[in-house]
């Protein structure tokens, strides 16, 4: 298997520090060579972006199994859409809004915004892969 070149962008300094401290382990697990990690990492031209929690991982496309990654993203997309749909139904339910504590409603609104942003990033990643596969 070919080793992928990756860069990781994270605003969380603790995460960047942990990755840096465990670089050999991370590279072995990911079968990748980590070129750079931190909050100021810029996306290289022609790189594919994968979003995971508080990380944006930029993968150079040479060596990437585009088909497998596309399937993984489609699966993620279905899950995000289902979660977003559930959250939107809750927020559209007048009874929920009337009875739920204010902090629960705010938590759902925050969740809705986060999932909306994640959905957009996954859709963009799928578009990138489609362009790469052409």
From TrEMBL:
One of its GO terms (molecular function) is valine-tRNA ligase activity. The keyword Ribonucleoprotein does not apply. InterPro entries: tRNA-bd_arm, Val-tRNA_synth_C_sf, Val-tRNA_synth_tRNA-bd. It catalyses: tRNA(Val) + L-valine + ATP = L-valyl-tRNA(Val) + AMP + diphosphate. Residues 65-129 form the Valyl-tRNA synthetase tRNA-binding arm domain. SUPFAM superfamilies: tRNA-binding arm. GO terms for cellular component: cytoplasm. This is valine--tRNA ligase.
